[in-house]
Amino acid sequence: MTQLTLGRVTADRDRLRRLLQDYGVYLGVAVLLLVNVAFTPHFLSAENFRTQAVQVAPVLIVALGMALAIGTEGVDLSVGSVMALATSLVSLYLGYGPWIALLVAVAGGLVVGLANGSLIAFVGVQPIVATLALMVAGRGLALVLLPQLKQVHDPGMAALGSGAVLGVPYLVLIAAGLALLTAFVVRRTTFGRQLLALGDSRPAARLAGLPVRRVLILVYAASGAFAAVAGVLATARLTASDPTSLGTLMELSAITAVVVGGTPLSGGRVRIGGTVAGAVLIQLLTATLIKHDLPPSWTQIAQAVVIVLAVYAARERGKR
């Protein structure tokens, strides 16, 4: 084999690897869909698609906020605890009406996000450390406010959890709207360009005069707010507040969705479409294993494999 031929083979291999890294998530979704169509009874029913879409909505919403944090070369480990805090606040303030409860819950998520952002931007704490601290504190506060599961009996919350427009559930519409909004912010606004520049090189962003601290605070505030919205929607769907389990391991699912979707852990890039596909991939994988009567342990193992592959893919992207 000549040197020229060897070079072409290497170039083709690198091109194929990049395509798989950038678009492999869509291939994974397509493969899982085909497998389920072939082997899962009643998979193509409208009710099944509705169920899958409703279940993926909270994961997607949390992943959108996580994508912004990872885009700045950070991470937000507190999102699961924010969901738990949001469900506790909803239960406590539901007596004032569902809208008041929703606003208080989102405000709680904003406060946690602002605390994360302030620790990172002003104190200089590493994102993984700052958000880990709020992850522990947030779950603890949620349990102090609501020590155990509590049923939610409110027509407004019930309508939010089970209502639909033209057959499309409210939860799906909200998740889709937030995805479109996040994509617009990242691609079309000055804030989005500043976010990507910060993730690409924070020292260079500072030298260029970009408002690094403000961007970081807004990013983590948005992540906290998105997680709180996801907590409210999950509460409405389940018609119960359970801070002991709601949001557990959600941070891992969100990180996996973001990284599998093509957003590198090294920052400087945010792929919202890939994040949506990553969230769908995780939901389809979990649903496939459950529908074929595999124990929960196998579901956890499969998700762990996806996480390892996602991190490996992100490492390869960081080399480019």
TrEMBL record:
TM segment ranges: 23-43, 49-70, 100-121, 128-146, 166-186, 215-234, 296-314
CDD domains per record: TM_PBP1_transp_AraH_like
The UniProt record lists the keyword RNA-binding: no
Main location class: membrane
Pfam family, one: BPD_transp_2
UniProt-annotated location(s): Cell membrane
Organism superkingdom: Bacteria
Keywords carried by this UniProt record: Cell membrane, Membrane, Transmembrane, Transmembrane helix
Keyword Zinc on entry: no
Membrane disposition: Multi-pass membrane protein
Listed PANTHER family: ABC TRANSPORTER PERMEASE PROTEIN YPHD-RELATED-RELATED, GALACTOFURANOSE TRANSPORTER PERMEASE PROTEIN YTFT
Annotated protein name in UniProt: ABC transporter permease
